[in-house]
Amino acid sequence: MKTVLKNIRQLVTWDDEKQEMCVQEDIDLLIARDKIVSIEKNIHIPDVKSVDCSQHVVTPGFIDPHTHPVFAHTREDEFDMRIRGATYEDIAASGGGILNSVKALRKLSEDELYEESLPRVKKFLEYGTTTIEAKSGYGLTTEDELKSLRVIKRLNESLSLDFIPTFLGAHDIPEEYKANRKEYIRLITEEMIPAVADENLAVYCDVFTESSVFNLDETEIIFQKAVDCGLKLRIHADEFSAIGGTELAASMHAASADHLMKLSPSGMDALKRSDTTAVLLPGTPFFLGRHEYAPARKLWDEGIRVALATDFNPGSSMTQNLSIIMTLACVYMKMTPLEALQAVTWNSAYSLGLHETKGIIAAGKQADLVIWNVRDYRDIAYWYGMNHVKKVIKNGCFQKCA
Ligand SMILES: [Zn+2]
Question: Among 85, 262, 298, 312, which has the highest number of CB atoms less than 10 A from its own CB?
Fold first, then answer.
C-alpha cells in the first residue's frame, strides 16, 4: 500500500554530501508499506492515498537512546525534598534514590510491572518518539533484572514503539551487598550477564561508573564479561566526577558514553579517536537544578557524534518529551535547532546501531515519521513546553495516539 504525504512546508532530511541534516521546502513524500520511497515535488499517482500535510513540518520519528522506563512508582516526594534543599546524594543516603525504586520494583510480579509500565511508555509515541533504548536496573537481583527485561520484551511486542533493551544490573550496589561489593560484582558477572544473554533479553550492557557507584576496575570486569557473552556496551560516565569512564568506554568500543557533564580533556580525546557516540542528557542537570551541562558545542565542533536523550527516570529526569530536551540543548549547550534535531534522530539511531534502517528520511529507510503542527522546524525547540505533534507514522502506519 502506498501513501503520499503532500504539501509539506519543510521536510527535515539528509544532505549526503555534507553528511548533515538539511531542510527541503514545499515537497511531497511517497511511502510504500513500511518504507520511504522518494522525496519529490508534486507527486501525483492515480488511486494512491494522499494525506495533506497543510504546509506543516515533517521530521524522522524521534529516537531516544537513554531511558529507564520500567519502574514501580514515581518519586514526587523526593522532588519535593530536593526543592526544600536536599541534594541527590542526601536523598540516596537516606534510602531514597535508585534504591527506593529497587525496593518497590522487587515487590511487583512481572504482570504487575508490565501493567504499571504500559500506559507510561505509550506516551513516548504521543511526543513523536518512535524508538527508545530501555534499561533495566531497578531489580538488582538476577530474578528482578530478568523480570524487568522480560517486561521490556513484552512492551516491545505489544506496542508499535520499538524498544532496544539494555541490561543495567550495575546501576547501584543493592543494600544487601553494601558491605560486600565484590560479591555483587561476582553476581553480575557469574549469574546475571550469562542469564540475560541466555534468554537473549538485552542488546547492550550498561554500567553506572562513578566514584560513589562502580569504579573503573569494577566497570572493566563487568564490561569484559558482557562482551564475552555477546553484549555491546554503553556507559553512564562523568556525570558527577571524571574517573576515566569515558576513556574506558572508548577503549572498549562502547556504542555510547552518556552524561559527560564532567568530561575531561583526555575523555574528549578518547571520544575523538573512537566511534563511541556522546549521548547527552541535559534534562538531568536541569531537573536536579545543577546548572552544569555537557560540552556539546565543543564535542560537535571536534567532530564527535552527539546524540540527545531524555534519561527518562523517576528520580533525576521525569520527562518523555525529546522536544524539551532539544530546547535545553539549544539554550544551555548552544546546539542549533537543526543540530538538536539530528541529535534526536540520526545520531541517536547510530548510537543504537539502527542507522541502516532509521534516523533519516531517505529512500529505503523505515517510514517512522512525525508530522508537526508547526510551519518552521525550529519551532519544535523554540516554542517550548508544548506538544506540537500532529500525527505519528510508525512503520508506515498512522498511530492513533497522536
Ligand atoms: Zn541513566
Answer: 312
Cβ(352)–Cβ(164) under 8 Å?
yes
Tell how far the Cα of 313 is from the centroid of ligand 1, in angstroms.
Answer: 7
Could you tell me if 209 and 237 are in contact, meaning their C-beta atoms sit under 8 angstroms apart? yes
Helices and strands of the chain, counted as H and E runs: 16, 16
Spatial distance between the Cα atoms of 182 and 217, rounded to a whole number of angstroms? 11
Torsion, Cα of 150, 156, 162, 165 (10° steps): 0
Q: How many CB atoms lie within 10 A of CB 168?
A: 26
**Measuring CA to CA, how many Å separate 294 from each of 151, 177, 209, 325?**
32, 32, 16, 13
Backbone angles phi, psi at 4, to 5 degrees: -110, 125
How far is the C-alpha of 164 from the C-alpha of 152, rounded, in Å? 9
Torsional sign, CA 254, 186, 141, 219: negative
Express each pLDDT in 141-186 by its tens digit: 999 999 999 999 999 999 999 999 999 999 999 999 999 999 999 9
Instruction: Please tell me the distance between residue 171's alpha carbon and the centre of ligand 1 in angstroms.
Output: 9
Please state, in angstroms and rounded to a whole number, the distance separating the CA atoms of residues 196 and 188: 10
Ligand 1 centroid – CA 396 distance (Å): 31
Q: DSSP labels for 54-68?
A: TT-EEEEPEEE--B-
Instruction: Report how far ligand 1's centroid is from the alpha carbon of 85 (Å).
Output: 23
* Nearest by Cα to 65 from 196, 197, 162: 162
Give distance in angstroms: CA of 243 to centre of ligand 1.
17
Residue 346, SS3 per DSSP: helix
- The pLDDT tens digits of the residues spanning 231-244 come to 999 999 999 999 99
Count the neighbouring beta carbons within 10 Å of the beta carbon of residue 281.
Answer: 31
Task: Quickly count: other Cβ atoms within 10 Å of residue 80's Cβ.
Answer: 10
